[in-house]
């Protein structure tokens, strides 16, 4: 049996420039997804209690009543027609059992869907004895998410989930999503040089799919809209400046950068009423900076304050459903049980 766990993440500064070849600073959270992959005489998927035995090709299609299963189905749909299958490293007719779940908030902008997809993907690859670099696996996971699930995603989540910790992820050269031949991301670990993380994440409890959130802005960017071209380029610059502010513990400056990040996203994409309310509450309570950590019009905000516990209490009083802390935890881990 293969056991895989994968962390969620919180975006500190620069997001969502990872969709546009920018730079982000991001950190894992303690919450993780997990998947178990084992031998079975029939192909069986069990994700968040949504269970299905797949006996024919049509069973791999999306079923609205069992929508959580589509993450596992997407992985297997992609792998069955991939180069790995053409090379004989994956048997498209194989049968196995996948069970997966997570304590990362769902559709909350903490990379929960990507974490569970990557746990399943890594588990299935390990089941077949397929090995690849973390960079290649991140790109493969992103390809599954984009082509099979239709998510308008960047590359932050996949790289953060694989590498774990606190990182600056530089994605310059990846703005066109060209696939094979484009550069890998540069992942720079920062945790050893950062003594504190005075942040708190506040989850609204409202679920929104980030792919839906980013579809229209991405289309406008691809069509050459100058406002979005300039705005998302600036977000990438904020990510690189934010890295310096974080390393130098220049918290007031980092707060200013976070607030500018928030203003750009508000202007180019929108934040959503609930997020606006929590961000306003954080700033009124003395946060140096507050912005979206992930998926918009729902999701999760991140606030910078010298006393994160006190700030968290204020955000709960303002209507947050759940608090989350940044924890530089290990990236995706695969074990043979």
Question: Would you mind describing this structure in some detail?
Answer:
- There is one protein chain.
- The chain is an alpha+beta fold and 337 residues long.
- It folds into two domains: 2-190 and 328-336, Ribosomal Protein S5, domain 2; 193-324, Alpha-Beta Plaits, CATH 3.30.70.890.
- It is built from ten helices and twelve strands.
- The strands form two sheets. Strands 1, 2, 3, 4, 5, 6, 7 and 12 form an eight-stranded mixed β-sheet that branches.
- Helix 1 crosses helix 4, helix 3 packs across helix 4 and helix 7 (226-247) runs antiparallel to helix 8.
- 52% of the residues are buried.
- The model has no long low-confidence stretch (mean pLDDT 93).
As a percent range, the share of strand residues is 15-25%
Q: What's the shape?
A: globular
**How many H/I helical runs?**
10
Q: How many DSSP E strands? A: 12
Architecture (CATH level 2) name of the largest domain = 2-Layer Sandwich
Q: Name the CATH class of the largest domain.
A: Alpha Beta
Structural class: alpha+beta
User: Roughly how many Å is the radius of gyration?
Assistant: 19 Å
Largest sheet: 8 strands, mixed
Which bin fits the share of residues in helices?
25-40%
First CA to last CA: what distance?
5 Å
Uncertain segments: none
- In total, the number of domains comes to 2
């Amino acid at each position: 049996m293969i056991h895989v766990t994968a962390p969620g993440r919180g975006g500190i500064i620069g997001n969502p420039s990872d969709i546009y070849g920018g730079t982000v600073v991001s950190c894992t959270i303690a919450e993780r997804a997990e998947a178990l992959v084992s031998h079975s005489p029939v192909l069986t998927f069990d994700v968040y209690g949504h269970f299905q035995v797949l006996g024919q090709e049509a069973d791999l299609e999306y079923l609205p009543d069992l929508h959580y299963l589509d993450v596992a189905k997407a992985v297997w749909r992609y792998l069955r027609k991939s180069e790995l299958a053409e090379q004989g490293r994956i048997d498209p007719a194989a049968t196995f059992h996948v069970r997966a779940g997570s304590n990362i908030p769902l559709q909350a902008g903490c990379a929960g869907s990507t974490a569970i997809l990557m746990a399943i993907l890594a588990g299935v690859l390990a089941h077949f004895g397929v090995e690849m670099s973390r960079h290649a696996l991140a790109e493969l996971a992103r390809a599954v998410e984009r082509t099979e699930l239709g998510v308008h995603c960047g590359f932050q989540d996949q790289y953060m989930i694989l590498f774990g910790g606190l990182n600056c992820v530089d994605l310059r050269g990846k703005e066109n999503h060209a696939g094979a031949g484009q550069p890998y991301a540069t992942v720079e670990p920062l945790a050893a040089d950062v003594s504190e993380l005075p942040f708190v994440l506040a989850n609204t409890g409202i679920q929104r799919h980030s792919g839906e959130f980013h579809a229209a802005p991405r289309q406008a960017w691809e069509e050459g809209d100058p406002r979005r071209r300039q705005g998302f380029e600036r977000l990438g610059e904020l990510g690189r400046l934010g890295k310096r502010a974080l390393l130098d513990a220049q918290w007031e400056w980092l707060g200013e950068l976070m607030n500018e990040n928030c203003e750009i996203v508000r202007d180019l994409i929108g934040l959503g009423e609930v997020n606006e309310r929590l961000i306003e509450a954080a700033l009124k309570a003395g946060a140096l900076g507050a912005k979206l950590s992930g998926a918009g019009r729902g999701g999760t905000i991140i606030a910078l304050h010298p006393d994160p516990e006190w700030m968290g209490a204020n955000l709960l009083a303002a209507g947050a459903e759940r608090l989350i802390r940044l924890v530089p935890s290990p990236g995706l881990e695969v074990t043979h049980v």
